[in-house]
Amino acid sequence: MGKSTGGRPGLTLATVAVVQFMVSLDLSVVNVGLPRIATGLGFDPVGLTWVIHAYALTFGGLLLLGGKAADRYGRRRVLLLGLGLFGLASLAGGLAREPGQLLAARAAQGVGAAALAPAALALLTATFPTGRARVRAFGIWSAANAAGGAFGVLVGGLLTEYAGWRWVMLVNVPMAAGALALARRGVAAQPPAARGGRPDVLGAVLATGGMSLLVFGVVRTDRYPWTSPVTLTTLALAAALLAAFPFAERHTTREPLVRPGLFAHRTVAGANACNLLIGAAMASAFYFASLYLQGVLGKGPALTGAMFLPFALGVVAGSVLAIRLGYRFAPRTLLICGALTTAAGLAWFALISPDGSFAADVLGPSIVASVGFGLCLGPVVSTATAGVAPHESGTASGLLNSSRQIGASLGLAALGTAAHERTGRTLTPATLNDGYALGFALSAALLLAAVLLALIVLPATGSPARAAGAAGAGGAGAAGGAGAAGGAGEREALPVPD
């Protein structure tokens, strides 16, 4: 793989910025192309949803293992391996000829991303530990992350309409190659941050399997009711696997994925719970906004993607604002203000109408919600990593990313089901509008729950400079939210009428 003797901070920053842009982009770029993917490869409606979930679940479910591997085997090594796998999987997906081939490629992309995300964040934290250099580094990373997640819908729409759906996969190949070249040249080969036994693979299987079954059970409630034997059995198996995870972590003879005491850390637990709620709310909001634009207002894929541009710019603006305010205010204060602003924007979204327009019903709420979104997510990272030992930084960042991805999957499934029940069987612009409006209202309620949790659990004091330095996490949240957006075919519970 080659060795770097000294490392170059500028190239390290460029590497992780490209990495996070790519990972964020891939969570959303596929969505607008889902209907044409279905036509091109012959997906049925149920199978098509797993083009999204195959990536999101392996990504979210294996992030803990990826974080532990970064700590144990070296961040540079895990980063390079993840980049290689991600690039090859993207190439395979772009060349897929059958549904199973594309799903396997998407799952492999998720595995690669699960290695990239925590390794990149740990590298950035280690390279820029304190001071204004850290603030600047995380600010740049923030903008790259936010742009990747939110612009993915725009890029996906343009590629699908003008180049073909395969390019929503192939677009990752040159980015992965470029990041790999930057990493080999600019990231220093350093001793692993943690020494010990091999990571607990059994724990990773239990966590990933349990979360996958949980999401699968919730997603399928549009076909099998909550009280049906199929749903109850699926959820019971998910609960059993998830309950076995902490037991396995306490009694494993290998290096546990998560030290049991880490969950007892008040700020870590509280920040991850807030992160899960924020991910659930924003994933659902992206999804409902996309379907409202396409199914109610009748916009095409490329135009729908373009209409998400104000949201992308708002997230970037919110991230920059978080940097400036982070020098003066504690992380909890910024988190609460950002979450309240986002909730106000989503509540405004809930006022959509069947005969509305982009200017009247989408533009204003998008700006308010996106600025709040960018403002609150940096402090989540600052809080979740405060007081964590250096050798656990990869694990903590993996846990943070995992909670957001799992929250996005669960939130989209649960709120999508609620919206579908409100919509009913008669699919008209008016009934669809009612369902989407309910979804926005429930998303706003999740943000308010995050605010309440922050008030109760998170400490009122903290380092303002650290909050500013962690503002870059907003892009990861944008990725999680954008991953749910743009696809009329993503979930058959809320179809877009012809």
Automatic annotation (TrEMBL):
Basic and acidic residues composition bias: residue spans: 489-498
TM helices/strands, residue ranges: 12-34, 46-66, 78-96, 108-126, 138-159, 165-182, 202-220, 226-248, 269-293, 305-327, 334-352, 436-458
Recorded topology in the membrane: Multi-pass membrane protein
A GO CC annotation given for this chain: plasma membrane
GO BP of this protein: response to antibiotic
Matches recorded under Gene3D superfamilies: MFS general substrate transporter like domains (1.20.1250.20), Multidrug resistance protein D (1.20.1720.10)
A Pfam cross-reference name: MFS_1
Annotated signal sequence range: none
Key words of the record: Antibiotic resistance, Cell membrane, Membrane, Transmembrane, Transmembrane helix, Transport
Superkingdom: Bacteria
InterPro entries per UniProt: MFS, MFS_dom, MFS_trans_sf, Sugar_transporter_CS
Renumbered residue ranges of the record's region Disordered: 472-498
The Major facilitator superfamily (MFS) profile domain, residue ranges: 12-462
Compartment(s) where it occurs, according to its Swiss-Prot or TrEMBL record: Cell membrane
Gene Ontology MF: a single term: transmembrane transporter activity
Compositional bias per record (Gly residues), positions renumbered to this chain: 472-488
PANTHER family to which the protein is assigned, alphabetical: BLR6921 PROTEIN, MAJOR FACILITATOR SUPERFAMILY MULTIDRUG TRANSPORTER MFSC
Name the record gives this protein: MFS transporter
Species this chain originates from: Streptomyces hoynatensis
